[in-house]
Amino acid sequence: MNLYNEYIKEIEERKGQGLHPKPIDRADLLNEIIAQIKDTNNANRQDCLKFFIYNTLPGTTPAAGAKAKFLKEIILGQEIVAEITPTFAFELLSHMKGGPSIEVLLDLALGNDSNIANQAAEVLKTQVYLYDADMARIKEAYENGNTVAKNILESYAKAEFFTKLPEIEEEIKVVTFIAGEGDISTDLLSPGNQAHSRSDRELHGKCMITPQAQEEIKALQAQHPDKSVMLIAEKGTMGVGSSRMSGVNNVALWTGKQASPYVPFVNFAPIVGGTNGISPIFLTTVDVTGGIGIDLKNWVKKTDANGELVRDENGEPILEQVYSVATGTVLTINTKTKKLYNGDKELIDISRSFTPQKMEFIKAGGSYAIVFGKKIQTFAAKTLGIEAPLVYAPSKEVSVEGQGLTAVEKIFNRNAVGTISKKALHAGSDVRVTVNIVGSQDTTGLMTAQELESMAATVISPIVDGAYQSGCHTASVWDKKAQANIPKLMQFMNDFGLITARDPKGVYHAMTDVIHKVLNDITVDEWAIIIGGDSHTRMSKGVAFGADSGTVALALATGEASMPIPESVKVTFKGNMASYMDFRDVVHATQAQMLHKFGGENVFQGRIIEVHLGTLTADQAFTFTDWTAEMKAKASICISEDETLIESLEIAKGRIQIMIDKGMDNKNRVLQGLIDKANKRIAEIKSGEKPALRPDANAKYYAEVEVDLDQIAEPMIADPDVNNKDVSKRYTHDTIRPLSFYGGDKKVDLGFIGSCMVHKGDMKILAQMLKNIERQQGKVEFKAPLVVAPPTYNIVDELKAEGDWEVLQKYSGFEFDDNAPKAAARTEYENMLYLERPGCNLCMGNQEKASKGDTVMATSTRLFQGRVVEDTAEKKGESLLSSTPVVVLSTILGRTPSIEEYKLAVEGINLTKFAPSHKLLVG
What we know:
Elements: H1 2-16, H2 27-38, H3 45-54, H4 62-75, H5 86-94, H6 100-109, H7 114-124, H8 132-143, H9 147-157, H10 160-163, E1 171-181, E2 184-185, H11 186-189, H12 201-205, H13 211-223, E3 228-234, E4 238-240, H14 245-255, E5 257-260, E6 263-268, E7 271-274, H15 280-288, E8 292-295, E9 299-301, E10 319-321, E11 330-334, E12 339-342, E13 345-349, H16 356-364, H17 367-384, H18 407-415, E14 416-417, E15 430-434, E16 437-440, H19 442-454, E17 466-469, H20 480-496, E18 499-500, H21 515-522, E19 529-532, E20 543-546, H22 549-558, E21 560-564, E22 568-574, H23 583-597, E23 608-614, H24 618-627, E24 635-640, H25 642-662, H26 670-687, E25 703-708, E26 716-718, E27 736-738, E28 750-754, H27 760-777, E29 786-789, H28 793-802, H29 804-811, E30 812-815, E31 833-835, E32 855-858, E33 878-881, H30 884-893, H31 899-905
Parallel strand pairs: 1-3, 2-4, 3-7, 7-8, 16-17, 16-19, 17-18, 19-20, 22-23, 22-25, 23-24, 28-29, 28-32, 29-31, 30-31, 32-33
Antiparallel strand pairs: 1-11, 5-6, 9-10, 11-12, 12-13, 14-15, 15-21, 26-27
Helix pairs in contact: 2-3, 2-4, 4-5, 4-6, 5-7, 6-7, 7-9, 8-9, 9-17, 16-17, 19-20, 19-22, 23-24, 25-26, 27-29, 27-30
């Protein structure tokens, strides 16, 4: 019983951390526990019964297999356990969700003992996580005249697994808790630097917000035991930055309901709200858990008697409160009237939180059960040869006669499945679509694996063209946490059918490339739909949606996703870029000009940005599409000229071939299949059979933004504005300032060039600038550290071949060594250039950070509090986001440069340029 003794030792260690026993997922450990249960005289028997009944993970975990097998033996009378009767054994099987438990239930339902068969059938009627093999067994038995199988199918055809669930309460009482003022990043709910613990739900739950906040939530629950605690972003948006399933899991853990008495630390039905609503990507995750997300609108922009906005001394709109949601306020959510009340007073209509589809998610305890339930109902009705009764709310289908299609509308119509209307569908339609490319990243991948196990999936859907498991978020430091988690993750995903960054067999070299860059390369069709486990899944080919680990798991398992077709905002360009400007400045200026045009309203939020770049290849265009996450857009689509798209596809083919040459393809030859698809697409474009994707000329947009390049006269910097008196306006990504704002004297403590925002051109700019500075000043001397993390190994190899890596080596004081990766995070930086391993590095903030209180100038994506740099008691850390040239020069000077210094430093350098297309990019 060595494993059991080790488990007891671990339990004692966890007690010291204030934690319960870790849920069991290992079959070998559970088998030792079962052996002690069978021994009625065993001293550990009572503890083992508790572990077996209440602390074993369900789904397809190895432990679930062992548990299901033992329960089957009890039901068949082969084993007698006084505390687990056959009836109780059936109840335990009913909570195991799928995989081995379904196999056991089918064995029993289709067996010879009619009494047992009928009991098993009653349990099966409540289950939804069935796959092709399970359904094939039921179908075969039915066709052979098995009456139990027929009974099960009839129940499935009526969707009784859904209709017999309890109805949603008409009134839901909540007590408010202000989690923060302003936009609330998912980093507050699930900090990136605690990513290693996400799969240990109880442990990870301890990092939500602060210990003080957790105590306040517990006090509210004690004071209001009959009410749910609603977490609120006051004067801001809840859940910006990422989908972060672990964030929703944490909220549910502290404020939701336990999903099953026999499955620990898996809660559902969290309730969240925000003055400006819920970030779209985060709201999808709330839906996954059967939760409620409310757009409170409890603050509005103040207007005068003439209806004009009232502004403060800085020209910012002044907000006035409509109603209070201060911590401790008791509110009532009425799911029938779909209104929010304070006592008898109606506060706001919340119909958008209770659409027919969302009501189904809430009733079923999450969106997965609805997706699988619909599939089972369709299968059962087809097998029985009947029409499935209308149980689920029909999908909303919007079709406007004579109205053209935006690019996203075209993609969704092409990929739609199960639609009723034969007409083209427009924005607002609820659509189930096939997914072409799926990405899983390493800090959420363990949770994706858990979700796949919980929904009993064992192999990737054949519908998916390609899927990739990255290793970029744990690339910086190969510490004990990474060594414990990542190999296990890579093995699981490789077995499941994904291309993995690390080879479980150790044949090919570990590739820690930034996931978004890889996904951008393996997307070989601009009509593709991509789902990825990170908010920066924003490919410049196709339309890509960042998603929570559960939605990623669902896409991997089923090859499908469900969502409304979003509205689009069209972005075009006019004028010319100044010779000394970089494309990153155009990206930031787009946001600034949009906010100015619409009086501070972010028209991008929750919508598709259809950006007509035309002439930029996918690598360069990704700088724009990537930043649309910071613009709070739902996703983005890049409209390209035919020649540009062909060039992008050729680049992608070359990089996929390198992956094949490294030995990364699998037995299904997924990567070769992608090259074949790219060749087919190139041939279609060249022949004129199917030109590059274009929206229709008469498509309808929510808004249109024309960016004037002539107005961009100096580098543009996204500033966290950490000292703004209005707390709600800090860390928003909406404060875009010209370089001259800083007067050439703002101290910079550290520079970072890396993340998914940069491409090969940025690395070449860095090399050229260093040569320029040496030529102008006689030497290169850094007055602040400069950390450089190329996004991919391909880029490093290309830089070596072209001579630029040698330049960077010349000026560096540190260069990564894959044969001796860092085992501990760097805590201090010298004033020199660091050439770090390809990956996320400082941008993620989960392994390495700048020194507390530093002012960082970075090319990365995030400026949230505590992400790249934490605060000290005396000074707030701040991460200013800018172009590569600005970062380089800031570290040479140790401060922000003046515009004159900047122009001199970039003289003669090939910056990333952009010229608007002269072609009409419409169909």
